[in-house]
Amino acid sequence: MFLKKSSIILIFILILSAFLFSQKREERYLVRVRAERERLSELSKMDFDFASRRIRDYVDLIVSERELQKILSLGFKPEILGKESDYAGSFDPLYHTYEETVEFLKSMEINYPNLSKLFLIGKSTRFGHPIYAIKISDNPEIREDETRILIDGMHHAREPLGNEICLSLIEYLLTRYGIEERVTKWVNNYEIWIIPIINPEGYKFIVDNNLSSPWWRKNLRDNNNNGKIDYDYDGVDLNRNYDINWTYGGSPDPSNWTYRGPFPFSEEETKAKRDLALREKFTLSVTYHSYGEIIYYPWSWPGTNEKAPDHSVLSEIASEMAKRIKTESGEGFYAYETETASNMSPPWMYAIAGTLEFLVEVGTSFIPDGKKIQPIVNSNLEGIFYLLERASGSGIKINIKDSKTGLPISAQIKILEIDDFRYIKPRSTDPETGSLTRLLQPGAYTVLISAPGYEKKLIKVYVGKSIQNIEISLRPLKEKDEKENRKPKISSFLLFNRF
Predict the structure, then answer these.
(1) Strands 489-495 and 457-463
(2) Would you list the DSSP string of 158-193?
(3) How many beta carbons lie within 10 A of that of residue 242, not counting itself?
(4) Which of 80, 187, 421, 484 has the highest Cβ tally under 10 A?
């Protein structure tokens, strides 16, 4: 009898040990890899979780023991900066929680009803947490014919500095309206949309567990449908879930921290941004991440290394923003063209939504000490202030109407010197307003305007240092005119502006 009881107890202990081992979280390491830029580019093509990509001299990676061994096998000599368990601890109360963020947004709408309106744009994939966007404009209830700008934060749960920058920007614009001339001008002339937290359930997972998982990146999709939150298997990397060059970016493996999801836009969070972007046709956008003190812009196209058609203006804006944002050591940020055009928000926003989007990596760690928040926020606001000024700088705002009815037309706008529709979706005017804003560098451009059932027009435009407003009327075609319309005639309309 004793032997039987001992055997039962031993079996129970073995089963319990096996269960506890299966629940044990795989340790993650923060490692820094130094090498020549060409060699570091090899790592960027793999499915590693990049904490920072200072491609000039080093990259920081979050890796498992297995991934660490893989890096060593490739001949790199990684320096271990720490492991995730070292960073676990209490959440700094100087950061806004999700609940505090929602309360702040609602209070802003209540206190500034003539300048702001709060929108529920979606709910998180697993737990249905609301995703809010606030619109700031002088007529927030109305969709006006104005340049639209988008700012967002926290695709990744571990990057709350993006939320803090968004909240500070909201407060600055609303409290300084009517006091600062530049703020009043921005709010009167633009529609500024801000999404502080795109990934609420991932962020809550970090905060509600008191930073026991400080490097958690993804949302909380239940990848194995077991009803539990499995640290080493659940979740989708939201910034790998966008529908562009799907097979080139992110990982198909749910256990990988850059898991791109089962299919493009599988997540409610990315759908929310997608639908807003396609509806509002933003001219400019900034998406905040951490860390690295660097600005990325589109792109190097997979397999060709082709630059983005709008490379010159993208590079100009990114470089000018970078000059104005100071690093923690007092230098300017670095602007860099991404080595990928896959799965992420900026290439999708640019290629499909027609928006010049910049990914800004802020800070030198994911969740720095709360005392560093305000200096980092203040520095990054300078970059946004430049962007808001640049939105009314060199470029065109073209408005297309029906010559008979005067109603707006959704027309395709092609700038022959720039647009390459192999890589980007044709740009078109807003169907409600008939307008499209394109930021350009000063120079001469040829613009082809076309819409089904209307006469095509080809115009010459000379762009100076500010936005040029162009009004065009298109003549409806009769059936017999269709064949003649295949070759557009050059319009006598010319816009001159001295440089």
Answers:
(1) parallel
(2) T-THHHHHHHHHHHHHHHHTTTSHHHHHHHHHEEEE
(3) 29
(4) 187
Q: Which residue has the tokens 């050591």?
A: 329
Q: Which residues contact 216 (CB under 8 A, 6 or more apart)?
A: 157, 158, 202, 205, 206, 231, 235
Tokens of 60: 């920081």
Q: How far apart are CA 27 and CA 74, in angstroms?
A: 21
Q: And the tokens for 197?
A: 């937290």
CA angle 320, 419, 483 (to 5 degrees): 155
Contact 442, 313 (CB under 8 A): no
Q: What is the β-pairing status of strands 457-463 and 443-450?
A: antiparallel
Give the position of tokens 């793999």: 46
Question: Which of 51, 44, 52 is CA-nearest to residue 74?
Answer: 44
Mean pLDDT over all residues of the chain?
Answer: 90
Both tokens assigned to 199: 């990934």
Residue bearing tokens 């960073």: 87
AA identity, residue 437: T
Q: How far apart are CA 239 and CA 244, in angstroms?
A: 11
pLDDT band at 4 (very low <50, low <70, confident <90, very high): very low
Q: Give the separation between CA 439 and CA 110, rounded to whole angstroms.
A: 34
Name the helix (H) or strand (E) containing 18.
Answer: helix 2-23
Cα 267 from Cα 262, distance rounded (Å): 9
Please choose, from the candidates 366, 328, 362, the residue with its C-alpha nearest in 3D space to the C-alpha of residue 87: 366
Query: Tell me: the pLDDT tens digits for 442-452?
Result: 999 999 999 99
**In this structure, how many other beta carbons lie within 10 angstroms of the beta carbon of residue 34?**
14
Condensed to tens digits (0 to 9), the pLDDT of residues 300-333 reads 776 777 899 999 999 999 999 999 999 999 999 9
Count of other CB atoms within 10 angstroms of residue 110: 10
DSSP state of 382: H
